[in-house]
């Protein structure tokens, strides 16, 4: 079994999907040691409890620096013998402390075809761009915002009458297929 930690800040839909894939046997030889969040009231916390996954909440405001914040997280990751970190809607840039501890062992999924539309409002940017295609990207995490080496991408159309929520759902459908496939391939 490969031990992974999942980091999330919001709804937790990708976390939930990964847990369901593990439970169904579609994602094999993966053990999720915990859900790490910077938002103790986020919906992902309730999902973690439903899946009986330990929740580790670390609020940056309780630490003197980003380095101290990440050092506390690293201590727990080491205690749990975590081998990989999987970001699933974690809305915070990973810093040097975690990057050094988990070099080339942090994955992220982003709702655009990187290198286009980095950051928080990628779906809106794609929708307002006039383009007819967008999608999702799984990549390794580096010190930049959505700048790490691309591992895999999937595309979907942008329709002229799309609204943000419709396009987000189309992209999420791709993410729910792609992310577990990449996790299985890369981590095994």
UniProtKB/TrEMBL annotation:
Q: Which InterPro entries match?
A: Formyl_transf_N (IPR002376), Formyl_transf_N_sf (IPR036477), GART (IPR004607), GART_AS (IPR001555)
Keywords (A to Z) from UniProt: Purine biosynthesis, Transferase
Return the EC number: 2.1.2.2
Q: Which Gene3D superfamilies match?
A: Formyl transferase, N-terminal domain (3.40.50.170)
**Residues where (6R)-10-formyltetrahydrofolate binds:** 66, 91-94, 108
Where does the Formyl transferase N-terminal domain start and stop, copy by copy? Answer: 3-183
SUPFAM superfamilies linked to this entry: Formyltransferase
| Domain of life assignment | Bacteria
The record ties this protein, via HAMAP family, to:
PurN
- The entry's protein name is Phosphoribosylglycinamide formyltransferase
Naturally occurring in which organism (per UniProt): Staphylococcus ratti
What is the gene called? purN
């Amino acid at each position: 079994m490969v031990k992974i930690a999942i980091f999330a800040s919001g709804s937790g839909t990708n976390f939930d999907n990964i847990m369901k894939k593990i439970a169904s046997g579609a994602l094999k030889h993966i053990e999720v040691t915990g859900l790490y969040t910077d938002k103790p009231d986020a919906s992902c916390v309730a999902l973690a409890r439903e899946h009986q996954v330990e929740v580790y909440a670390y609020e940056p405001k309780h630490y003197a620096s980003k380095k101290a914040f990440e050092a506390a997280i690293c201590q727990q990751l080491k205690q749990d013998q975590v081998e990989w970190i999987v970001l699933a809607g974690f809305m915070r840039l990973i810093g040097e402390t975690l990057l050094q501890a988990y070099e080339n062992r942090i994955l992220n999924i982003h709702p655009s075809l990187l290198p286009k539309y980095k950051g928080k409002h990628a779906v809106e940017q794609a929708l307002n761009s006039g383009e007819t295609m967008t999608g999702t990207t799984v990549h390794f995490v580096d010190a930049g915002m959505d700048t790490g080496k691309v591992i895999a991408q999937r595309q979907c159309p942008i329709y002229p009458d799309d609204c943000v929520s419709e396009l987000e759902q189309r992209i999420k459908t791709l993410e729910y297929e792609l992310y577990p496939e990449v996790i299985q391939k890369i981590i095994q």
